[in-house]
Specification:
Elements (H helix, E strand, L loop, with lengths): L4 H18 L1 H10 L5 H11 L1 H20 L1 H9 L4 H13 L2 H15 L6 H15 L1 H4 L1 H17 L8 H18 L8 H10 L3 H26 L1 H9 L13 H16 L4 H17 L9 H18 L3 H10 L2 H11 L5 H9 L6 H13 L11 H8 L10 H21 L2
């Protein structure tokens, strides 16, 4: 892939967005300091300190630059060539999966399975959410699994803790959730974005995925949760004692409403690559939601829009990174390739890495395995590493100590499960 002027400018904008997102907590802290003295400046800083907004903002700025440099029509034509189907899908599936009928059903199923575990009740639920929730991603897609898992963690774990959430507990749990969702979608060939990018090109089906990736994902998810529970045992036990304060709705949701919600989710997952159908389905769902609103929770439009804006920015900014990514992927093999992809995955969307790899016709089977394995393993250490991560953090933000994401803490919290999963995929290749 040749170096181009557009590619260089896109990389500059991408690097700027990355650096600004890494310093987001300091920008938000500055926003708080100016809240009383200069409220408009405070709002601007708050706007520029939100990770979901930063990448969308720089993506929009890049498009405007392109229109200025090459003409308005050229900029629009260039944008038309990009694929925003995943953006539309994540926006819609996040709303569908966060509705009360779906989360109540998921909580009931996970709760019944958790009762079989020989652990204290709250720890049973915690383990079940972090194991079963991410593994659901192989069936209902990763964004839906992330949404359901985050909502259940919020309802069954964080809310009973009544604000006494430490940095260690929050970021270790968040990192484990991110990594488990990223690897948990690799049991099938149609659910995880990094796998979707290569499955058709490399002729991978679900049996192939399970034999080469799926059983290792199961092992990694179980070990990650076991380590997370061991590290946070005291806080989990303290939360167990506060269980009586956790309140849940007792209003019964009719089975047919839940069934229709599942039909909407199934249609959305089936039509993941057809954004016009997905958006039309969403509009139809809003009508059904209005009819049955007494059995519904508030629609999470704001969180979903922010996540969609973030992913749209990623699609724009990563579309021209091939000039430096492709030479790296084609020039190294074995352990250096694996470690190199693991290093790149947290700083650029892991689906972008595998999409570039799918364009390289000279890759060996071993290199294909290592690239995809490293991409799914490395999808949990930063908020930009995997498409569903912004959705998970958006839903759990109010329980984050300080209310702002600390990127270094997430790298540390996600580092342990990443190391465990990465070791498993390397040893059993």
């Amino acid at each position: 892939m040749t170096l181009s002027f557009v590619g260089i400018i896109a990389t500059v904008f991408f690097a700027s967005a990355l650096l600004q997102s890494l310093g987001a907590s300091k920008i938000l802290a500055a926003s708080d300091r100016f809240k009383d003295r200069r409220p408009m400046l405070s709002r601007i800083l708050h706007f520029m300190g939100e990770p979901e907004i930063v990448f969308g903002f720089y993506g929009a700025a890049f498009i405007f630059f392109l229109m200025f440099a090459e003409g308005f029509e050229s900029g629009l034509n260039w944008m038309d060539k990009l694929n925003f189907s995943e953006v539309a899908f994540v926006f819609v599936i996040m709303i569908l999966a966060s509705t009360r009928p779906v989360t109540d059903l998921a909580e009931m199923v996970i709760g019944k399975i958790s009762n079989l575990l020989p652990l204290p009740k709250k720890i049973r639920m915690y383990c079940s959410i972090l194991v079963l929730g991410p593994l659901l991603g192989s069936l209902i897609t990763e964004p839906a699994a992330m949404t359901i898992s985050a909502l259940l963690l919020k309802r069954s774990v964080y809310e009973p803790m009544r604000g006494s959430v430490s940095n260690k507990f929050f970021y270790m749990t968040l990192g484990t959730l991110f990594v488990n969702v990223s690897v948990g979608g690799a049991l099938t060939h149609f659910a995880a974005p990094p796998v979707l990018m290569v499955a058709r090109v490399w002729d991978w089906d679900t049996p192939y995925m399970f034999m080469n990736y799926g059983w290792k994902a199961l092992l990694a998810v179980l070990l990650n949760v076991a380590v997370c529970v061991r590290i946070n045992w005291k806080e989990l036990m303290a939360m167990d004692q506060a269980e009586a304060s956790c309140q849940s709705s007792t209003t019964y949701v009719p089975w047919w409403i839940t069934g229709i919600h599942l039909v909407f989710i199934t249609l959305c997952v089936t039509a993941v690559h057809h954004p016009a159908f997905v958006i039309g389905l969403f509009i139809l769902f809003l009508g059904f939601y209005g009819i049955t609103k007494e059995f519904q929770s508030p629609v999470k439009i704001e969180e979903s829009m922010l996540v969609g804006f973030f992913l749209g920015g990623l699609v724009i900014l990563t579309a021209n990174q091939g000039w430096w990514l492709q030479p790296i992927l084609t020039s190294i093999e074995s352990l250096p390739l694996y470690l190199g992809t693991l290093f790149l995955a947290p700083v650029t969307d892991n689906a972008a890495i595998t999409a570039l790899a799918a364009q390289v016709t000279t890759l060996s089977e071993s290199s294909k395995y290592l690239i995809v394995a490293a991409a799914v393993v490395g999808g949990g250490m930063t908020i930009i590493a995997n498409a569903p991560n912004p959705a998970g953090f958006a839903l759990l933000r109010e329980h984050c100590p300080g209310k702002h994401l600390k990127p270094l803490y997430l790298v540390i919290g996600g580092g342990i499960p990443t190391l465990i999963a990465g070791t498993i995929y390397w040893i059993f290749q």
